[in-house]
Specification:
With 627 residues, the chain is α/β, with parallel strands linked by helices. It has 4 domains: 4-52, no CATH class; 75-243, ANL, N-terminal domain (Rossmann fold); 383-483, Roll (Luciferase, domain 3); 488-624, 2-Layer Sandwich (GMP Synthetase, Chain A, domain 3), CATH 3.30.300. Helix content is 31%, strand content 23%. It has an 8-stranded mixed beta sheet.
Amino acid sequence: MPRTRDKVLLGLGGVAGLSVAAWQTMFPWLKYDLDFMRVGKKIGQHMSKDIEIKRYIIEMFEETVARCPKKTMIIFEDREYTYEFMNEQAKKVANIAYEWKFKVGETIAIIIQNHPSFVWTFLGLQKVGLGVAFINYHNRSKPLLHTIKVSKAKAVIVGPEDELFHAVEEIRPELDIPLYLYGKSTANVPEGYISWDDLMLNSPAADISKSLRSSFTLVTPCIYIFTSGTTGLPKPAIVNQGKAIGFSKFLMFSEMTPEDRVYSTTPLYHSAATLALFSVMALGGTMVLRVKFSASHYFEDCRRHKVTIAQYIGELARYLLHVPERPEDGNHNIRAMIGNGLRADIWEAFQKRYKIPKIVEFFGATEGTAAFVNTWGRVGSCGRLSPFLNKISPTKSYIVRYDPRTDAPLRNKEGRCILCKIGEPGLMIGGIPNPALYAEGFYLGGKEINEKKYVRNAFVEGDAYFNFGDLMYYDKDYFIYFKDRLGDTFRWKGENVSTNEVANVLTALPFIQDANVYGVEVPGADGRAGMAAILLKDTVEFHTDLLPQIFHHCEENLPVYARPLFLRFIKEMPLTTTHKQKKVQYVKEGFNPALISDPLFRVSAETKTYIPLTTENVSQFMAKSRL
């Protein structure tokens, strides 16, 4: 009997006489597929079993409690919280929520910072079948009010921090639902709120009958996670019980076991942290939690708590590299880091300095229908999309050509999408393997908001794909690479410019810590001209000698249309709470010296450098410019 590996390869070509070695010679990329199938098969089996026996997230947690009650579930601020203790607190929450008599699947919003109480509040609400809206506690005013209302929350539970109370108090007149407040007793709770502490104090830690959630199905809401709101108000992505099961398997791509300790500084309201939390509960691991990211304490925490798997997101790694080097940098127990957003320009430097054995970069979207994972450590890649894996996957995904003027897929004369070639950037679209799971759409909010995410009739009449809104490409081995988010790519001189690509070139200069690249409007010119907000390293003082170096570096490494026409030197890089660069304000300010107090420069082809742009000379520059 040939091995399974042999069977797979021989079956691909239908030619029984060819050896495994011959197939690998003809298709060298197949070895990566076989490696992935080893991991993917195991994860797929776990998912299928959980779906079959209806083992939802709350069941996973309760089984782990029964199996290892005294094991530490969460480490927070040097205190250890066992599975048994977390369950006792969750049961108190469940008994409070039971008295509300809300229906299964109805929603409660929680606004709680990273703390074990976030977790036990979520679990308690799940025990009685309620969905939970994870509200971004950094939101204020209109965005905060919008997230609560659009989630259709029946009540709001607010953490004890003063800033959270003040944020909710600002919008309280427009809320007509109960507001529960951690950190206050009935004696001193502000008017309009109910003391959650007193309710917890008086609530019994009695088990709640599982019959209360017997009507759970795969499409019953589990949680709602909100988008960043960079293109309008935040939208609540639906994570139903079926998708939550998928979340709980994600850290298996880093070969997680119950003995692992997972470190996360990402806000728990974000899907990246939820992947870690659900994986920990499902396998019975331990989560090391911190209120917020601290570059100077990141590896210190990992050493102290013997972390074995660490999570990263966005530009987190860049800020860890920015910390002054220490002899103990590589002294830790981490065997893998998993996350998304690690840029290729710092990947190897980060991995080498901190001695990280394995980096697992992934690509996906909370509301998306597919995800990709780079388990091979290929620098810069976020997964693979090979012909074979795509054929056997229940979720067919493709990279297709797009129209940069409309951001929509290009169509051929038959009206169908056009596949991209190797190395050609295009739009990632993901198939929808089980439409029933998306019966309510990708977001709460109605048909119109959901329809925008569909690509219909892509290859045959009646098919439907999810539009990730991201530009990707793949190499000859079918490893895929993130190029840009639609909207981050801008058009200049009839060509498409990738902000991510230009930023990677700029940060290759030894004196540049980070670069935020974007397109700005130029009166009388088509498209947008490139501009870069540059953050120098702490040890570097700005001097005009740096300008010709930037000019020549861009000249040597970028096509003429992609070279930044404007530079501004900033003192700190504005980031979202998930360590992604903010661009909106910079785009609004453009290259207007009246709005920008930072040192501002424009390109000078004559002198082969960048020269100052001021309120005195900007009009003259615009009049003479041949942009």
